[in-house]
Design brief:
With 236 residues, the protein is an alpha/beta fold. It has one domain (38-235): Aldolase class I (TIM Barrel, Alpha-Beta Barrel). It is built from eight helices and five strands, in the order αβαβαβααβαβαα. Helix 1 packs parallel to helix 2, helix 2 runs parallel beside helix 3 and helix 6 packs parallel to helix 8 (222-235). Bound molecules: iron/sulfur cluster (SF4).
Length: 236
């Protein structure tokens, strides 16, 4: 749940507010073709830990956080277990620890809204801006995500949008512009971070005996990433 920078699931690489060993919350409703943690999809496969144990561990590490440090609740999808997430987020804030929530924006009920009240920064993964491609890439329509974004906009939540650039899937300039126009609807948007697809997930899928859907897709070139980052700078 806490981390310094660049964990496996493409967390923010700059101005990270977290420090310490990662502790992931398992379970995720999405089925992204490039998922780095397919072994985390099934929450029943994890060990159990009480929320106050997690908070105690975070509190013990607080002296090491530094001025930009804090706790990041990640997954899988941490809001799949929203009551548990709420206890951790609230517990961390009670101890004066900055909280970040790494989410795909799939869930939005009263408990999730309560979680967001105890979240200082939302790290929102947007997989695609086109509804059809979003469904093809993640297995789900994007209507839930759009409702989540609307709520973040209403609450003026602080948000970092993160987007994985996958050649042939999400590296089109118009797709990126579409994503930026969605991101701009949130007044609390602080940054949009583009993360290059990499192939480290492939071995995990194979170890699970699941065919890897992206096959031999290569990471994007540095030139392509540079061009897309220029578009982000120009349009935000
Ligand atoms: S939302 Fe994240 S954890 Fe869930 S399937 Fe997609 S990449 Fe994997």
């Amino acid at each position: 749940m806490i981390r310094r920078d660049c964990p496996p699931k493409n967390a923010p690489s700059r101005r990270c507010r977290a420090a310490g060993p990662p502790c992931w919350r398992p379970g995720c409703p999405m089925r992204c073709r490039y998922c780095h943690n397919p072994d985390m999809w099934d929450p029943s496969l994890s060990g159990e830990m009480e929320s106050d144990q997690v908070v105690s561990q975070v509190v013990r590490l607080k002296p090491y956080f530094g001025s930009e440090g804090g706790a990041t609740l990640s997954g899988g999808e941490p809001l799949m277990q929203a009551p548990f997430a709420l206890e951790i987020l609230r517990g961390c804030q009670t101890h004066g620890i900055h909280t970040a929530l790494d989410t795909c924006g799939f869930y939005l009920d009263d408990t999730v809204k309560h979680c967001l009240k105890h979240t200082d920064l939302v790290l929102l993964d947007i997989k695609h801006s086109d509804p059809g491609r979003h469904k093809a890439l993640t297995g789900h329509h994007m209507d839930r995500l759009l409702r989540f974004i609307e709520y973040l906009a209403e609450q003026r939540s602080a948000v970092w949008v993160r987007h994985v650039v996958v050649p042939g899937w999400t590296d089109g300039e118009e797709d990126l512009r579409g994503l930026l126009s969605i991101a701009r609807t949130m007044p609390g948007l602080e940054k949009v971070e583009l993360l290059p697809y990499h192939r480290m997930a492939r071995d995990k899928w194979q170890a699970l005996g699941v065919p890897y859907p992206l096959g031999d897709t290569e990471p994007p070139s540095e030139e392509r990433m540079q061009r897309l980052r220029e578009i982000v700078s120009e349009e935000l």
